[in-house]
Amino acid sequence: MADYTSLEQIRLQKIADLRAAGVEPYPTRAERTHTSAQAVAALDAVAKDSQVTEQISATLAGRIRATRPMGKLTFAHIEDGAGKIQLFLRVNELGPEKMEFFSKFFDIGDFIQASGTLMRTKTGEATLLVREYKMLAKAVSPLPAAKDETLEDGSVVRHAALEDPELRARRRYADLAVNPHIRENFRKRAAITKAIRAFLDANDFLEVETPILQPLYGGAAARPFTTHHNELNQDMYLRISFELYLKRLLVGNLERVYEIGRDFRNEGVSFKHNPEFTQLEFYAAYFDYQKVMELTEAMIGYVCDTVFGTREFAFDKDENTHYELDFSAPWQRIEMRQGILATSGIDIAEHPTAESLFQAIVTRHPDKKPDPHITRGKLIDFLLGEFLEPTLIQPTFLYDYPRDISPLAKPKPGDPLTVERFEGYVAGFELCNAFTELNDPLDQEQRFLDMQSDYRDDEEEKNPLDEDYLRAMRYGMPPNGGFGMGMERLTMLLTNNRTIREVMLFPALRKED
Hints:
Elements (H helix, E strand, L loop, with lengths): L5 H15 L15 H13 L8 E14 L2 E8 L2 E8 H15 L5 E10 L5 E12 L9 E4 L5 E4 L5 H6 L1 H7 L1 H23 L3 E2 L5 E2 L11 E4 L4 E5 L4 H9 L4 E9 L11 E10 L3 H20 L3 E7 L2 E6 L5 E4 H9 L9 H11 L11 H13 L7 E7 L8 E2 L2 E12 L2 E9 L3 H14 L12 H8 L5 E7 H9 L18
Parallel strand pairs: 3-5, 8-12, 16-17
Antiparallel strand pairs: 1-2, 1-4, 2-3, 4-5, 6-7, 9-11, 10-11, 12-13, 13-21, 14-15, 17-19, 18-19, 19-20, 20-21
Helix pairs in contact: 5-6, 6-8, 6-14, 9-11, 10-11, 12-13
């Protein structure tokens, strides 16, 4: 049971008193003729047309955000999904009983329906002169209120109603209710997703849906969540990627496919990681990773232009690090080998074995301590994270990756240890990942087998051998390019939010004691 505060107890008593008086504080029906924005627009339209003389009747609905009683009249502000508007309650229109009823039973946070005529006050504020009202929903708990702080110099600083990031993430409903800029974050996120769909649809991609519950996981380097299907009596996995299912569709002559949906990875939580996140993946027959780079530049550029009207964005990675990012094409392109050599002083091509590369790292950088038991590819990944990644601030394609951490990518001609893969980096972290996809079923089978022997049993990035996927490849898979991107990371960058929590409505959080 809830432990109600004294203020909540007062509001609970008001609910009981309302019902005792025959007034339902949570009625089944509500009416509304105008949103706040539509009401303002209607007033503006009348002001422009001098021939219109009749009054505009309207019924509004929203949450009470402020009240200002002044004897026989009261001003109140209500907020709906479109904005705020003022209510004007006056004894002349309502009578003494209804004015007293409003004063006694309505609190900040309650939802109200009000009918009357639209007008502007002497100061020009759009206002509804209220002739009727009713309670739509009584708020038991008061919303967090903004606080003013007076500084030593006499200036006043207004603190947001709800600022603590942990509390905001746990109580997103309150966060959205009192912080309009947070609502705008999620409107922007929806617009970004809509723009990506529009771009891919216009480029002849087909949106599809693939299984979330899978008998085998694969397509990415991550530990899965495991569950059990009782009727089938078998373990199932929440997908970590759409890749292997989407590429099956290429075999079936669906040449360009994409999916935007949830992936689940049983991994750590950080400013850029959440166990559950939204992923975009697309696959295009007869593409290679160079064509995917070009499509990526065009797609992100389209999103920037459509949603924001610019390709230049400010991004604050932390309190002391500010970047001015430019997503205009072409993005910078850096070969991984050259990038690691330039930032770490180690040429990975000179170290074809894990042992040799490990020795080079600890010799040149004795303060760095990579795991001596990991593969050569993981050591290269270590060098990337330690030295190169932090330098990739402007949108950059880092390309040509080691084969043993890219089991689904096609080898680079003439270099069996390297595959045609790129990752897009912005502000020092990965935004997207893409390949010239492997379509040789024999090579793919051997890659799966090599991973079984090269990786430890508990290695997170070990992919199981998927015989059905190999069967599909044996029917013939066209050459193709594939792409994956976390929608939260793109939204972070374009809305200047430094953590993934800020662009997820309900991020994963440790259980609250």
